[in-house]
Amino acid sequence: MPFTLCMMAPGFHSSASFLVLLGCLFIVPESGAQRPVVTVTNSGNVQVFRTDTANLSCSFVSSVPLPVYTVSWYKLNNDGSQEAPFLVYVTNSPVQEDANRLAELGLTGRVSFLPDLTSITIQETAQPDTGTFRCEVDPIFPGGGVAASVDTNLTVVCP
Ligand SMILES: *[C@@H]1O[C@H](CO)[C@@H](O)[C@H](O)[C@H]1NC(C)=O
Ligand SMILES: *[C@@H]1O[C@H](CO)[C@@H](O)[C@H](O)[C@H]1NC(C)=O
Fold first, then answer.
1. What's the count of helices (H) and strands (E) in the chain, helices before strands?
2. Cα–Cα distance measured from residue 102 to residue 106, given in angstroms and rounded to the nearest whole number
3. Residues 103 and 145 in one domain
4. Are residues 20 and 86 in the same domain?
5. Whole-angstrom Cα distance, residue 87 to residue 120?
6. Could you tell me which residue ranges the Ig-like domain spans (predicted)?
7. Where do the DSSP E strands lie in 33-103?
8. If you average pLDDT over residues 68-76, what whole number do you get?
9. % of residues, the chain, pLDDT over 70
């Protein structure tokens, strides 16, 4: 809308259009500043003994208040490729589990979000849990942002 006004402003022929242009100059940078820039962090890689609980931390900050976002957890394939997330949280909605993906990963019934709704906990770890987990945060509202993620390598060792 502000852009449309800018394009239609005939120039500096009258003080009125000059004012329109001035208004655009102020409005456009302001809406640019509303665009969320999300930074996602963890507290490093995790190593646990087999059967122990592994907490994989994830937290994020946003450049502007972010009332609506999605947190998705993936486990990467050995070649680094990414498939469907096994756990998804969308602000103010129930946690969504992908039963098929959880079964493929052998994680059924052993993984859930921690109370912060970004970190996860894996119970009764087994050696096949070893691998790279990805926490991705996708800003939904305000819009215009891009998803950001952090990878955590989990290593399950024998006692
Ligand atoms: C995992 O996080 C939960 C909740 O914060 C905590 O109670 C538990 O002690 C943690 N477990 C490990 C192994 O860090
Ligand atoms: C996790 O492991 C992968 C595969 O071994 C490696 O390429 C990657 O750099 C590691 N990532 C971190 C955060 O240590």
1. 3, 11
2. 6
3. yes
4. no
5. 9
6. 36-155
7. 38-41, 46-49, 54-56, 59-62, 68-75, 87-90, 96-97
8. 98
9. 79
- Tokens 């991705």: give the residue: 136
Q: Which ligand 2 atom is nearest residue 151's CA?
A: 13
Quick one: tokens of 120?
A: 């996860």
Rounded Cα distance, 90 and 158, in Å: 36
Q: Which ligand is nearest to the CA of 125?
A: 1
Q: Is the CB of 48 under 6 A from ligand 1?
A: no
Q: Which domain holds residue 6?
A: 2-33
β-pair partners for 135: 73, 150
Q: Ligand 1 atom closest to Cα of 53?
A: 13
Q: What is the CATH number of the domain that holds 76?
A: 2.60.40.10
Which residues, in sequence order, are CB contacts of 55 under 8 Å at separation 6+? Answer: 46, 114, 119, 120, 121, 122
pLDDT digits (tens, 9 = 90+) for 101-139: 999 999 999 999 999 999 999 999 999 999 999 999 999
**Total tally of structural domains belonging to the chain:** 2
Do 87 and 97 touch, CB atoms closer than 8 A?
yes
Q: How far apart are CA 105 and CA 16, in angstroms?
A: 64
